[in-house]
Write a structure and sequence with these properties.
Largest sheet of chain B: 5 strands, parallel
Number of strands of chain A: 14
Order of helices and strands of chain B: HHEHHHEHEEEHHEHEHHH
Strand order of the largest sheet of chain B: 1-2-3-7-6
Number of domains of chain A: 2
Largest interface: A-B, 41 and 45 residues
Order of helices and strands of chain A: EHEHEHEHEHEHEEEEHEEHEHEHHH
Oligomer: heterodimer
Distance between the termini of chain A: 38 Å
Structural class of chain A: alpha/beta
CATH architecture of the largest domain in chain A: 3-Layer(aba) Sandwich
Distance between the termini of chain B: 44 Å
Strand order of the largest sheet of chain A: 3-2-4-5-7-6-12
Strand content of chain A: 15-25%
Structural class of chain B: alpha/beta
CATH class of the largest domain in chain A: Alpha Beta
CATH superfamily of the largest domain in chain A: Thiamin diphosphate (ThDP)-binding fold, Pyr/PP domains
CATH architecture of chain B: 3-Layer(aba) Sandwich
Low-confidence stretches of chain B: none
Number of strands of chain B: 7
Shape of chain A: globular
Number of helices of chain B: 12
Largest sheet of chain A: 7 strands, mixed
Number of helices of chain A: 12
Helix content of chain A: 25-40%
CATH class of chain B: Alpha Beta
Radius of gyration of chain A: 20 Å
Number of domains of chain B: 1
Mean pLDDT of chain B: 97
Mean pLDDT of chain A: 97
Strand content of chain B: 5-15%
CATH topology of the largest domain in chain A: Rossmann fold
Chain lengths: 330, 316
């Protein structure tokens, strides 16, 4: 199968949805050609589809989200790009108080088929205002779905599902994944929202992860394999709604759980998963659940300092080894 | 065909009596939540909405009873919503502050001050892209004119030339804070210049004047000339919410505006023109009372929502 980047996969997902449905359009800051977006994901789209359907906005994150809500409730299917997840703090009234609530408050009269496309993550010295992982905020809000693809295949398939979904979706990409390549078929396909994927089967421990941290989890799993530890890796793909079934099934097999995300551990989605596994799978657990994630400090600018704060494959290995009895490890 | 001024009178009186009736029921403890009354501002709602078609859209605020009634909402569904009943416009899940009726383009009252403004820009964008010729009106108050949402929404609508009418009901208060203390330039219409769009100030207690400037603005928008900001100069005769003692306003200011009650001004005019007399007024009032009585009865008799309704409509 052909290999394309995460960026190209997202581009194709949007391009195909723009072709398929005239109601789909994209709005955001600096997304038009020749600039083509801060991370160049939309490059080429305004030339192909025109500046009405792929349109630059003023730097007005609140109005971008608000106008997307307005368009969504009156027959359009907007994709609103917010350049950085950090900047959705400026849109949050429209996302949380409006988009997430309108269907419910209207008694089901009005639907909000809206995708907020944004990206997060450390790794390019973007520092404390351009690299935060705030997905747990949105996962906390009933009425929103939060989608976080880790691979090019999922990026395209989940983006297409998100555009076709009649609910507001916060679609969070990771800036360090844009150049990552993976297999993506030529033909049309979608990936279901709310369904996790077991990327690697294993017997001794389950690592639940999503977005960029999936790649760290896979690296950790490869190193642990050398030490004789068989790791099952689950990519959540969607963090709200959570696919607890897949997680609990895996824990019932491995009896040990490590949850790894790039976001700060405190208040992160890992805590929610841990709580639910304790509630619904307590008897299956042979060891305490471990959470791996960023420390509770703002993201520092210095790459050296950043490494102190953000977790990586090595931290996952340490977490796994802390709950694997030596006899398995050796 | 009824004389249009009589029509305005009837509609304004309907709003007034709806809110007065809701108040007395609220004070008896029958309604949950809170009520924000627009008494004194009815001319804006009726003047603007009289110029809209059924398929045009409005977005309004926590103080939106008048706007949605003038846009054509059924009183029965509104009272039932205020009573939090299953038969309410929002099936008892929105309440006074979030009334919606998509059938007639009521895209929502809103509990967040200013939030409807950028949404209205998006609705206008939607109409522009679909070329459906529909108008969108965002109602808001002087308080909302100080939000970032106002600035972002007007700028976006202006730069994209959207068919949206921004109607500021300058009722002189943002909650309890007088306009004297919340903006240096008390003329909200002046702000239009900053966005390169027309800003028009109108006597918000003169329903015909409001209707006229609205009609002009709509014509402009339909010609593709973009949005207009209308500032309707009016006054909130009641408190921010029902129960507010309104200790923050001067008696003389209140008296000044009380003497400019938009319904009384219109009635005086109708009497002078020989369009109304006591029996005619009585007939109009009786008709409204009948509608109110029947609507309240309907709401009281209506079932509560089913318990499972709490879990419906979160997602499709």
């Amino acid at each position: 199968m052909r290999q394309i980047t995460y960026r190209q996969a997202l581009f194709e997902g949007m391009r195909e949805e723009l072709q398929r449905d005239p109601k789909v359009f994209i709005m955001g800051e600096d997304i038009e050609d020749p600039f083509g977006g801060s991370y160049k994901v939309t490059k080429g789209l305004s030339s192909e589809f025109g500046r009405e359907r792929v349109r630059n906005t003023p730097i007005s994150e609140l109005a971008i989200a608000g106008a997307a809500v307005g368009a969504a409730i009156t027959g359009m299917r907007p994709i609103a790009e917010i350049m950085y997840l950090d900047f959705t703090t400026l849109s949050i009234d429209q996302i949380v108080n409006q988009a997430a609530k309108i269907r419910y408050m209207s008694g089901g009269q009005i639907e909000v088929p809206l995708v907020i496309r944004t990206q997060e993550g450390s790794g390019n010295a973007s520092a404390a205002q351009h690299g935060q992982c705030l997905e747990a905020w949105y996962a906390h809000v009933p009425g929103l779905k939060v989608v976080m693809p880790a691979t090019p295949f999922d990026a395209k398939g989940l983006l297409k599902s998100s555009v076709r979904d009649n609910n507001p979706i916060v679609f969070i990409e990771n800036k360090m994944l844009y150049n990552v390549k993976g297999e993506v078929p030529n033909e049309d396909y979608t990936v279901p929202i709310g369904k996790a994927r077991v990327i690697q089967e294993g017997m001794d421990v389950t690592i639940v992860s999503y977005s960029r941290m999936v790649h760290e989890a896979l690296q950790a799993a490869a190193k642990l394999k050398e030490k004789g530890i068989s790791v099952e890796v689950i990519d959540l793909r969607t963090i709200s709604p959570l696919d607890m079934e897949t997680i609990l099934e895996s824990v019932a097999k491995t009896h040990r759980l490590v949850i790894a995300h790039e976001a700060v551990v405190n208040g992160g989605i890992g805590g929610e998963i841990a709580a639910r596994v304790i509630q619904d799978g307590f008897d299956e657990l042979d060891a305490p659940i471990q959470r791996v994630g960023a420390r509770s400090v703002p993201l520092p600018f210095s790459p050296l300092l950043e490494k102190q704060v953000v977790a990586n494959a090595q931290d996952i290995i340490i977490a796994v080894e802390s709950i694997i009895p030596q006899r398995i490890g050796m | 065909m009824e004389n249009y001024l009589i029509h305005y009178y009837r509609e304004m009186m309907r709003i007034r009596r709806f809110e007065q009736s809701a108040s007395s029921i609220y004070e008896k403890g029958e309604l949950p939540g809170f009520l924000h009354l627009s008494i004194g501002q009815e001319a804006v709602a009726v003047g603007v909405c009289s110029q809209l078609n059924k398929e045009d859209y409005i977005l309004t605020t926590h103080r939106g009873h008048g706007h949605v009634l003038a846009k054509g909402m059924k009183m029965k569904e509104m009272f039932a919503e205020l009573f939090a009943k299953k038969t309410g416009s929002n099936r008892g899940k929105g309440g006074s502050m979030h009334i919606m009726d998509s059938k007639i383009g009521v895209l929502g009252a809103n509990g967040v001050v200013g939030a409807g403004i950028p949404i209205a820009a998006g609705v206008g964008l939607s109409s522009q892209m679909q070329q459906n010729g529909r108008m969108t009106v965002a109602f808001f108050g002087d308080g909302a004119s100080n939000t970032g949402a106002f600035h972002e929404g007007l700028n976006m609508a202006a730069v994209w030339n959207l068919p949206v009418l921004f109607v500021c009901e300058n009722n002189k208060f943002s909650e309890s804070t007088s306009i004297r203390n919340h903006q240096r330039n008390r003329c909200v219409a002046d702000r239009a210049m900053a966005y390169g769009i027309p800003g028009i100030q109108v006597d918000g207690n003169d329903v015909e004047a409001v209707a006229n400037v609205t009609a002009e603005a709509i014509e402009r928008a339909r010609r593709g000339e973009g949005p207009t900001l209308i500032e309707a100069d009016t006054y909130r005769l009641m408190g921010h919410y029902l129960g507010d003692k309104v200790e923050y306003r001067s008696e003389s200011e209140y008296e000044h505006w009380k003497n400019r009650d938009p319904i009384e001004l219109l009635e005086q005019r109708l009497r002078k023109a020989g369009l109304i007399d006591d029996p005619k007024k009585q007939a109009i009032l009786e008709e409204i009372e009948k509608e109110i009585r029947e609507s309240i009865d309907f709401a009281r008799r209506s079932p509560e929502p089913d318990q499972d309704d709490a879990f419906l409509h979160v997602y499709q």
